Amino acid sequence: MRAAANFAWANRQCIAHGVRRAFAAVLRRDADALGLSLVYDVAHNIAKLENHETSSGRARCLVHRKGATRAFPAGHPDVPAAYRALGQPVLVPGDMGRYSFVLIGRAGSMRHAFGSTCHGAGRRMSRGQAVRETRGRDLVAELRRMGVTVRYEGRDTLREEMSEAYKDAAQIVKVCEGADLSRVVAKLTPFVVVKG
To answer: Is 119 assigned a catalytic role?
Structure first.
């Protein structure tokens, strides 16, 4: 698992490097001058050894977060120093036609969910169902009307990721806030989507 997590981290760094180079080429500016630096990197669907309060007292636990991500509260020693006063940053991607969110971990995450919260809204329909339900629709034109530019490989790739295939991220983060797992600090609107 650690090897896989390291591979995923290296892969994200390579993708980010390629994105920086593409921006530099298109804007005809030096990549460093553009200020396109990494703000935060997080893995999801991973297991970590952590110390938590349990019904038997404090214990070292192997916490497997599948469909979840870490959401430690402000002041927790395992939160990166840059964010410790605020809480663990949480990125909740939405879908290509709606919004995504940035959250921070809250104290309730430790009491109720081993320091965890959601890392996305999850699917409402299978990929195959989404492809069938979009027959005859021009998803590129629909997204363009919403102000979203899309680049994709294969029409089915775009169809299986249509907005309606996913639960509404706003409803999901509202539940997480209500459970004191995390708190919304920013709502993001898509303007470019890459599917491939």
So the answer is: yes
Residue 84 belongs to domain spanning? 67-195
Q: Is there a domain that residue 157 lies in?
A: yes
Residue 13 lies in a domain: no
Higher pLDDT pick, 192 / 184 = 184
How many structural domains is the chain composed of? 1
Catalytic residue from among 17, 76, 112, 119: 119
Q: Which helix (H) or strand (E) holds 59?
A: strand 57-65
* Backbone angles phi and psi of 91, in degrees to 5: -100, 125
Residue 115 buriedness (CB in 10 A; 0-12 / 13-18 / 19+): buried
Q: Please name the helix (run of DSSP H) or strand (run of DSSP E) that holds residue 60, with its range, or none.
A: strand 57-65
Judge whether 75 and 105 are in contact, CB under 8 Å.
no
Q: Is 164 left (phi over 0), alpha (psi -120 to 50) or beta?
A: alpha
CA distance from start to end of the chain: 25
pLDDT tens-digit series, residues 60-110: 999 999 889 999 999 999 999 999 999 999 999 889 999 999 999 999 999
Confidence at residue 120, expressed as pLDDT on a 0 to 100 scale: 87
Q: Is residue 124 part of a domain?
A: yes
